[in-house]
Design goal:
By secondary structure, the protein is α+β, with helices and mostly antiparallel strands. It is built from one helix and five strands, in the order βββαββ. The chain is 27% helix and 30% strand.
Length: 73
């Protein structure tokens, strides 16, 4: 388990509450996860890599990463 994560998550029956005061219902969580997954799928369908990072406020951001092969002669 990672020790550098200071945010504690408590799962209740139909919601998720974090130590930062965010209280998300199951439907809100589901919408966010589907949105992230859709972004990752659309990026990888184009042949690029996707990186998902957590911001300081706890939200997630998806980055499109395109790697280029460089040949030096």
């Amino acid at each position: 388990m990672r020790t550098d994560i200071s945010e504690k998550t408590v799962f209740k029956e139909n919601s998720m509450e974090t130590s930062k005061g965010n209280n998300l219902s199951y439907e809100q969580m589901k919408e966010r996860v589907i949105g992230l997954w859709t972004a990752v799928c659309s990026i990888t369908d184009r042949g690029n890599n996707a990186e998902v990072k957590r911001k300081k406020d706890g939200s997630f951001t998806v980055y499109e990463v395109k790697k280029n092969i460089v040949t030096v002669r």
